[in-house]
Amino acid sequence: MNKLWILFLVLNSICFSQNLEEQIYVATETFIAHPNRESLQNLIEKEAQFKSELKTRDEQLAMVFLLCHKGYYLDQNSALKEAIITYEDALNRFNANALSKLSDFDIIESCLNPLGNLYTKTGDFTNAESTIKQYIFLAEKSKNRKHEISGIINLSKLYQTIGKHDIVLGMTSDYIEHLEISKAQRKKLIAIRVDSQIALGYEDIPIQIGDRESYSNAIQNKDFERALSVFQKLKTEQFSNENLSKRQLAKLLVQEAKLYRILEQNTKASESLDEALLLLLPNFSGNALPNKQDLYTENTFIDIFDLFAEIQPDVQSSLTYYDLSFYVWSLLRDGWTSQDTKIINQTDHKIRSEKCIDLLYQAYRNTRDSTYIFKAFQYSENSRASTLKDIFHKKMRLQKHPNDSLLIAEYDLLKQQEHITGLLKTELLGENKASVIHDLNKNLTEISLQLKQLNNTLSKKYSLDEQVFSKEVLREKLTQDNAVLVSYFYGKHTLYQFVVAPEKIWVDKVVLTSETENQISEFIHLFDSASIINNDIQKFSNSAFTLFKLLKFHAVSDFKNIILVPDGRLNFVPFETLLSEESQTTSFSKMPFVVKDQNITYNSSALFYVSENAPNPNTELLGVFPVFENTNRTLTYSINEAEAIQNEMKSKLLMREEASKSNFITKAKEHGVLHLSTHANATPAIIDFYDGSLSLNEIYGLDLNPQLVVLSACETGIGIRYKGEGAMSVARGFQYAGAKNVLFSLWQINDLSTSEIMSFFYEHYSNTQSPHFSNRQSKLDYLEDEAIGNAKKSPYYWGAFVYYGDLVTPEKEFSLYYIIGGILIILIVVLLFLKYNRSHGTNTAGISS
């Protein structure tokens, strides 16, 4: 009886399983037959029920089938975020259950291809590249040339979107003459190639046959009347294509509006934009601004609102449209998990910010209303260091809730993401197997999916809105520090200088011409080698004073403490080495360097300046000194540097072979001050240890909270520069890893002078615990040291080190100077008084007699 009962249960289970699989397929096919909102809602309800009952791999495969068709419908109906989530679910199930071994289901056509395109559409470029490369690999492995070339087309479009036109030309050239390419695919690749040639300014582009190529040639020749005529013919053809989505049609209308805008036909441009909005927002009336709650993750909205902003008659209307673009951009950004993706997208954000600042500056000039200045300053702030701000906020959140398992998991995943990204970049530079790169791309995608799921949960539990600060908060902090904030915005056409003082705020601008750009570049390149300045001291003096005036730094000459937020090329300018007056002297110690009169503390954003960070009470120093003896990279004076530090600080020094990569990673969290005296490179950004190098992505993956990081190595502040994010340097890596206070170098520095500067620095730091004070004082000590010859006092030798971080009030030495000074003054007064009395007494006696 028991055996019969068990047999019944087994048979019943099998039947139920088969029924569930069949139910999923039937539900999906019913939806495919009549795809609409009502049938979608019905499918979603059944999907939830099915998911709670899934047990077998066959059922999982049926669910993947359902999800892929649901994702396709959502994509076609402009629900891009929901489509991405659906496809990601399908891909995750397909991989987790190893369904490729169960069935020949075409995961490329049904899921990977549309998912990769969706990532591109929504600006998630890292996931797009990873996903497309995954299915190109799978297609090559299965010798499916159609999918392989389709992947190349989509990858070319992606690279074109992010401006990598040289790569596009190389890829399209390789595949256009491919033996197994279809006519349609070849035509697409030719069109992509032509667009990239136009973007790169190629003059000899072969004229192709057909309207698409005629349009491209008209744009290239700036014959916009002709371009509009050809485009409208293309538009008519496209609108009759029933297979095109509303999104694709909306993009056509935006392109038409752009042509009308160029031809100064703003009314027609507005009509085309309204028509595009109506396609994307069926409930949009066309008589007013769309409601924010109706907008969704669709970058076509950004194109629409940006263009609307350009044709508005007044400042406020333009800003309103730009703010809608920023809002949609933030919706898209919520779906990006990769730092690289965020950095790439920051470029467009900064360009839009410049347009807003231009409008507000003009409004200020017209009205003299200072509220416009602070609003422009906020646009400037919001355009910079977004990824550093992101990780800073997440670390602050984790510090507040150190036992939250979700926050811990999120941070671990972020570190894994950076680690795998670093490995992937290393593999791409080598000659490794495609399978290794495929596996890394796959791992990167899996981590991204996990981060997205966590973000959805955490966003409901915690608020991670971008922190903002008021004018009052900033002024209060500046009053407390007796400081002034100078923030630059380096745009495409204009350099803005925002100055926020405790009592007022003002703005100035410099038009960026080829002449002004050259003045900035020439000054930076004076520090390319030690001989340049010494060979023509007067040239340096002229350049240093010219740049001082150009950057309007005289505007803050009355302030002792400067909080400096540089931007663009100004990230590479050592402001301390500028001259505040004209100078004819060849004696460097007598030159009116800014460092002599002002203390400069740099920062990546004013937000970091006003943000309170829990200080690390640990003051013990970890020093890393590989030395590299008996090699052509020996750092002879690094040993002197180590001895000077040991004399001044409680420290643990890793010398020679002990200065290994693993030792540093293990011991870094145990110390409050990290000092690395070694070699470093700017491109790619790496820092060397005795047994190897730490790459930028590996540094990103560290978890640090030191009081201070000192990077006593070459070019630690130099790297590939991105708009709005600054240089991807070793120093930025440590900032991302959790170091708020970092002292680093802007060029290749001399071994001997570095050891002397560092000796002076730690002599003061051990007494004051103030990095900014010690950094400035070390430079002054170096200039005043009579044992150092004039040639070695060139700013090349002492100006490289800049300090980014908090303005820390000196603990002892600063007050001690005042005490000693006060005592000396009192003694002088007493001596003068006694002398006066003695002299006065003698004179009186003489008169009496």
UniProtKB/TrEMBL annotation:
Residues 557-806 form the CHAT domain. The chain crosses the membrane at residues 816-834. Keywords: Membrane, Transmembrane, Transmembrane helix. It comes from the Bacteria. This is CHAT domain-containing protein. It comes from Hyunsoonleella rubra.
